[in-house]
Amino acid sequence: MEQSTEGMANQIEFKNRKGFLIFFGVVEIFLGFIFLLFAIMAAIGTSYMNTNTEMNGTPFYTTQIDISLLVYFFIAILIVTLGIGNIKVRRWAKDFTLIVSWYGMILGTISYIFMFVVLSYTLSDLPSESKSIAQVIMFIFGCFFVVVPLVFILFFQSKNVKYTVDSIDTKIGWTDKAPLTVIALYLLTLLGGLAPLMSASYGWAIIFFGTVLHGIPGAMFILLNSGLFILFGYYLYKLDIRGWWGLVLLNITWLINSIITVSNVSILELYEKMNLPPESLHQIENMPFLNSKIFLIYSFVLFSFLMGYMFLIKKHFSPKTVS
Questions:
Q1: Longest dimension (CA), the chain
Q2: Residue 5 has pLDDT above 60, yes or no
Q3: Residue 252 — φ and ψ, nearest 5°?
Q4: Residue 162 placed within a domain
Q5: Which of 9, 39, 44, 193 has the fewest Cβ atoms within 10 Å of its own Cβ atom?
Q6: How many Å apart are CA 299 and CA 124, to the nearest integer?
Q7: Are the CB atoms for 224 and 279 separated by under 8 Å?
Q8: Would 204 be classed as within a structural domain?
Q9: For residues 189 and 180, what is the distance between their CA atoms, to the nearest angstrom?
Q10: Angle at 168 between CA 167 and CA 170, to 5 degrees
Q11: In-domain check, residue 6
């Protein structure tokens, strides 16, 4: 159905995608409930393991699982909220869904490659039945975390979707006050500032230029780091060049931090300062893909990706935008 957008210059013609927006909103709600199911299953599993350990006296470490529960619940609430917003045809929901879909596809692709590398180490030692199960899991993971986000990206990037939403939701929202590429980095920066606070569950352990801080010194460094990320993220959203330069310097500092630390400290020491039990430390020590070299490669890849992206969006910043 062809329709003209009221208030748009030159009366742009587009195909109304409201029906598809409602459909994708329903799909998002369904996906949100799947993540909620993951959280419930993890909670039941944790409760079961705790019950067993009380009977046999074997220690069971639950901090990592507790954090996973929080992550699953957060993702579930976020996706359901976006689904409701898209059913109501809201600008912020369309923009946020597009950003989250890009996040999901990028992280899903990286995780898929990581899983492939891990399985290449372990599959040869597994029986044929376990290999088949692993291959099925890989297929499901690829569909869920790579293909699904890609489908959402292709739909929500459509001009027809944009014009449909703009014609129905005419109110200018917070996602309209900066380019989406900048908002995506702004949200990532906020996440980079808030996520390290979860290290409180691990004794505030953090790498620091050739050593591993923990306890009060670690907490002070993490809080300072989080504050800087949030501050520079705010400047980013305001299109203030100070935010762009601040993040560049933070990224360079963290790369140097990683190089110096990996050159002088075993990655196992970080896990020790996280108060992991001996059983977990022994498992980590026997994992060939969890070592200092892999950590350094990961840091360099992340640094290269972020710096490339930041130079890509630098055109949106100038000294004149400083407020």
A1: 75
A2: no
A3: -65, -45
A4: no
A5: 9
A6: 29
A7: no
A8: yes
A9: 14
A10: 75
A11: no
Higher pLDDT, 311 or 201: 311
Residue type present at position 242: R
Q: What are phi and psi of 2, to 5 degrees?
A: -90, 140
**pTM of the predicted model as reported, rounded to 2 decimal places:** 0.80
With respect to residue 35, please indicate whether it lies within any of the assigned structural domains: no
- The pLDDT value recorded for residue 24 is 97
- % of the chain residues with pLDDT over 90: 46
Please identify which residue in the block is written with the tokens 């799947």. Answer: 34
**Domain region containing 315:** 178-323
Per residue in 151-209, pLDDT (tens digit) is: 999 999 999 999 999 999 998 888 998 999 999 999 999 988 998 888 888 889 999 99
b/e map 137-166, b = 16+ CB within 10 Å: eeeeebeebbebbeebbebbeeeebbbbbb
Q: Roughly how many angstroms between the first and final C-alpha of the chain, as a whole number? A: 44
At 198, list the tokens: 């979860």
Residue spans of alpha helices (H) in the chain: 18-56, 63-87, 91-122, 128-142, 148-156, 159-168, 180-194, 215-237, 241-264, 267-273, 278-285, 292-313
pLDDT score, position 64: 58
